[in-house]
UniProtKB/TrEMBL annotation:
Matches recorded under Pfam families: Abhydrolase_3
Record's keyword terms, sorted: Hydrolase, Membrane, Transmembrane, Transmembrane helix
Membrane-spanning intervals of the chain: 6-24, 31-56
Alpha/beta hydrolase fold-3 domain mapped to chain residues: 171-371
Natural source organism: Phytophthora fragariae
Keyword Magnesium in annotation: no
An example Gene Ontology molecular-function term: hydrolase activity
Name assigned to this protein: Alpha/beta hydrolase fold-3 domain-containing protein
Length: 395
């Protein structure tokens, strides 16, 4: 494993330094040097966690205390990993993945209310910056070309196929983030994987030479913009693509993860009622939330990123202006008819928070006789990404 290899490398360097100190008869410096190294690492981590902590509190005075709590949590996780013989909780997981999940879950659990209600806007900048760092390396790997787009007064990002072919497909991807945080660029890797997988399917299964462009769409988020603004933004960017890409609806794919997947489904339902001739070819929905009234609980999903403190704040905030009981009920896709929508692929993992919703959504589809929805339930600690490779995260 990567982290285990890092420990081995550190041990090797310690051994080399120790031998050098012995050679120069300066072994008495070993302990001071070790303490200095540990202190340097501690300070570096502390500074980093202080930066993270600034997004998890509204008081600058409490930032150092938040940083210390984060450091203690990290030490606890590292210790647990060491006591397990440097083995992750699940054999399919890397420790880096486990560490990311555990730390993110801890942050959402401890500070979810502050993140959603106080600092949602502030968190978007660093998330976007992280996505920008991933953008070009990911595009180089998959052979796509990033192209910014300003449409409907919002900034989106194309992942363009460099080869313009006669057959053209556009994927519009709506990101997740509880309707309040995240950024389209955080899905750069997923968008490029979708591009690569669709290219492979068209070529290998249908012998079609097709260019695939992926649009990472931006929408306005809560708390500044409440329901149905985000949903309408996603609808409007679809109309923009139809108008400006010289493409027909049967060559457009809706895609989304979590909250974005819900909006992909809901906009298909909207098109069914308003403009059925504009239905897209298919919708790809990864871990969609389909029932806003029953979103699960922490004790049922101990390995999912999403905690009560986050979910129980972001959804009520997003739906804050939906006060009518009947209207609020119909906001959830599961409370609407599932007939007469385009083919939909839906995927949930058994370790994630919305898995139980997925089971109920499938039961409703079966009860209505819907036969154009494909359900993929990924069992245990493994799940497959869209490229067909195994991805060790189910939440």
């Amino acid at each position: 494993m990567a982290l285990h290899g890092a420990f081995v490398e550190i041990g090797f360097h310690v051994l080399v330094v120790g031998n050098l100190l012995m050679y120069f008869d300066a072994l008495y410096l070993a302990i001071p040097l070790l303490l200095l190294a540990l202190f340097t690492v501690f300070i570096a981590l502390f500074v980093g966690f202080c930066y993270t902590g600034s997004f998890l509190t509204t008081s600058s005075v409490s930032i150092p205390f938040v940083a210390i709590k984060l450091q203690l949590k990290l030490v606890k996780l590292l210790s647990a990993y060491a006591f397990r013989g440097f083995k992750p909780t699940f054999p399919e997981w890397t420790f880096a993945l486990e560490l990311t999940i555990a730390m993110t879950r801890y942050i959402f659990n401890e500070y979810g209310q502050v993140i959603v209600n106080e600092n949602a806007q502030r968190m978007r900048g660093p998330i976007k910056a992280y996505g920008e760092k991933m953008l070009r390396p990911s595009c180089r790997e998959y052979g796509t070309v990033p192209e910014p787009l300003i449409a409907n007064n919002l900034e989106h990002m194309w992942l363009r196929d460099p080869k313009k072919k006669q057959q053209h497909v556009v994927v519009i991807h709506f990101h997740g983030g509880g309707y309040c945080v995240s950024d389209p660029l955080l899905n750069v890797e997923l968008g490029n994987q979708i591009h690569a997988k669709l290219m492979q399917i068209f070529k290998m299964q249908y012998s079609l030479d097709v260019s695939v462009d992926v649009l990472l769409a931006r929408y306005c988020m809560a708390p500044e913009y409440l329901y149905p603004t985000a949903l309408t933004d996603c609808f409007d960017v679809y109309k923009y693509v139809l108008e400006h890409e010289n493409i027909t609806p049967d060559h457009v794919v809706f895609s989304g993860d979590s909250a974005g997947a819900e909006m992909a489904i809901t906009n298909c339902m909207r098109l069914r009622e308003e403009s059925p001739e504009l239905q897209p070819a298919v919708a790809l929905c990864y871990s969609p939330v389909v029932d806003f009234t029953n979103v699960g609980a922490d004790e049922d999903t101990p390995y999912c990123l999403l905690t009560d403190s986050f979910v129980d704040n972001c959804i009520p905030m997003y739906l804050r202006n939906v006060t009518d009981v009947d209207e609020r009920r119909m906001v959830s896709p599961i409370n609407n008819s599932l007939r007469d929508v385009p083919p939909v692929f839906l995927q949930w993992g058994t370790l994630e928070r919305f898995y139980e919703q997925g089971l109920r959504f499938k039961a409703k589809a079966d009860a209505e006789g819907v036969n154009n929805m494909e359900f993929d339930f990924l069992h245990g600690s493994r799940c497959s990404d869209v490229s067909g490779g195994d991805k060790s995260f189910d939440g």
